Amino acid sequence: MRIVNPKVHLIASPHIHWDAMRDALIEQTGKPTDWFDRVSSHMEVSDAEILVEFGGRECYRSWEPGLNANVKKVREDSKEYLGNILSSGHGSVLEHANFSFVFSNVSRIFTHEFVRHRAGVAVSQESMRFVRLTDLPVWFPEWALEDAPLMARLEYYIEQGEILQLWMAEHFGLDVEGVNFHEKKAKTSFMRRFAIGGHATHMLGTINVRALRHIVYMRTALGAEEEIRIVCDQIAELAVEAIPNLMQDYNKNENAEWIPEFLKV
Known about the structure:
This protein is α+β, with helices and mostly antiparallel strands.
């Protein structure tokens, strides 16, 4: 048995193709626009936030005054503009920005709950049909680690599960030369039925910002399961660092709940 901790890594985020964006604006407006000159020359706003802002301005042709006869004044500050997007509930433009997170050493308890978030989320998870279990790494909350009698029983239970997995692999001859992969897959799929639900696994999740905001709010609430709260707190911390203007209304309270000012975005 190995004791592990869930960990989240942000491995991919939007990247603006500046020349293509400039050409698109020229196609639509006849010139690059002051907005493009402004955002392309300042690095304090992330590409993800610029992409969302682009989507919002595209809806109203609000790159600058005069391009839309109904628009006489535009917000020039990106943080202010995106704050208005959030407060007005114009959430659809947040769906353009996607972030890819690797979830390492998370349990099947976590993954079964997380995959319920389907809208705006893509998931690729380590397959227990193909990946044979040779040990059972597990995360324990602090209160469990401090309970010595409990841990003694759990360690024995998990170690027996590991012994069973290794015994079945030997019993089925999965490492004997010449056993084809189809046979290994079929037996590995059978063996996973007897693994504990809490053993650590890995998953890649790509989430758009609209869905991310919802997940963070729902899954850091006090009523959420303990492990998913820990993982989604890490998501929130990474998101605040990567897209502060799109998370500007979120605050973390004393209970580690992330609560937005604008819920319906």
